Amino acid sequence: MDEHQYIGGRVGEAVREDLKIVPRTSWLPDSTFRLLREGYVFISRGCDRAGTDVFRTRLMLRSVICMRGEAAARLFYGDEDLTRVGAMPQTVLRLLQDKGSVQQLDGALHRARKAMFIRLLMQDEAGIARLTANFRECWLAHLADWVERPSIRFSSAVAQVLADAAFRWCGVPDDPDLRQGSTLSEMVEQAGHFGPRTWRALYRRSVLESRLEALFHAIRAGSSNVREGSPCDVISRYTDEAGRPLTGRVAAVELINVLRPIVAVSKYIVSASLRLHQNETWCRLFEAGQDDLLNDFVEEVRRISPFFPFVGAVAKRRFSWEGYRIDKGQWLLLDLYGTCHDPRLFFKPDVFRPQRQLTWQSQPFRHIPQGAGDTARTHRCPGERITVELVKEAVCLLCREMEFDIPPQDLTISLADVPAGPRSGLIFSGVVRKNPQ
């Protein structure tokens, strides 16, 4: 196809010279400090100032076009002429994906390796059930410790539960040098930050990567046994179309890309806990066995909660979109949080309404807390199913297996913090096991 193909037009149609110019929203040469100040609402506020769903600015002195809404989601998650390569700042890339990962591949290469993750995270019914069971077992094991303490910081506690369950499920040997849950938590917490803590997280990730790389060499040499069908086993045996296995380093990267997102589910579980605290009726319903409402509750938690604010892409060629010219090499950002809070797409978007009856399969370009489009064919996160299952299980555990108090504390959530959460970390006190064995 011609490099000037017009998206939405006829194949080969040249990009017109009368296209609209993407508006700027500020006279400032760079908006990095505004982004740091506004966080999750940076793109939405920029769009509101521009009176459109797209605007141009600079971040870290780099030209960027920011966009929100359904049409923008279709562009990001439906066009082969966008790439994720070069779309993240290096610190974010190293903490959340790393070089050589599936997210850094395009086209057929991306889809081939993505299929491995889809099998593990979406299609393996027994494996998903095993992960949920591991999570429950780890939660109850930690609960025995929580009841002995005057209070716990729930955000940290549930992240450790998730890490324990993830390492066990993935088949990582029971070795403290390998099962570094705090390292996974640091990757998530520092992804939106810069400074000494971020560099510490990067260093700790590199150490874990090296140790997991050695684990994969041991698995392939037969000196370390892992459960057949576990993520460690599947990743170690993966080969591309040419029959080549992943290098040990890339295998370690991809294993971390299974482990770390599971730990990140703690953000949704904390948010779900707050919703249960703010409206105890929901907890009473789930305590009484109203499992038919769980999915609606959890999907609304995902929609309304601040998770990761936006995703990036880079144009591989020049094209036009919605009447705007997009040049080759242009950096683009899609507003995930703002799209999920757009009043044109969701009635009273800042109101928690499980009655919306959302699912991760429906409204693929509106309900996009973890990305848009079709999981098998685009860059949409393959972990949404296990995310929903884990949060549902957490809600059941909170409502049916334990009692606790939430003492006075600072529960405010600053949208300038990425990732966001209650300032206190959500303190539980007086934890009691409801059904002690």
Describe this structure in words.
The protein is α+β, with helices and mostly antiparallel strands. It has helices at about 30-40, 40-50, 70-75, 90-95, 105-125, 125-145, 155-170, 180-190, 195-220, 230-235, 250-265, 265-280, 280-285, 295-305, 335-340, 385-400; strands at about 55-60, 60-65, 80-85, 150-155, 310-315, 320, 325, 330-335, 400-405, 425-435. The chain contains 16 helices and 10 strands. Strand 1 and strand 2 form a beta hairpin. The longest helix is centred in the middle third of the chain and has 26 residues, at about 195-220. Mean pLDDT is about 90; it is low at about 1-15.
Characteristic terms for this protein:
disordered N terminus, 10 strands, alpha+beta, three-stranded antiparallel β-sheet, 16 helices, about 425 residues, about 45% helix, about 10% strand, five-stranded mixed β-sheet
Short description:
The protein is α+β, with helices and mostly antiparallel strands and about 425 residues long. The chain has helices at about 30-40, 40-50, 70-75, 90-95, 105-125, 125-145, 155-170, 180-190, 195-220, 230-235, 250-265, 265-280, 280-285, 295-305, 335-340, 385-400, and strands at about 55-60, 60-65, 80-85, 150-155, 310-315, 320, 325, 330-335, 400-405, 425-435. The chain has 16 helices and ten strands.
Average pLDDT works out at: 91
- Summed up, the helix count is 16
Q: Could you give the count of β-strands?
A: 10
Which strand-content bin applies to the residues? 5-15%
Query: What structural category arises from helix and sheet content?
Result: alpha+beta
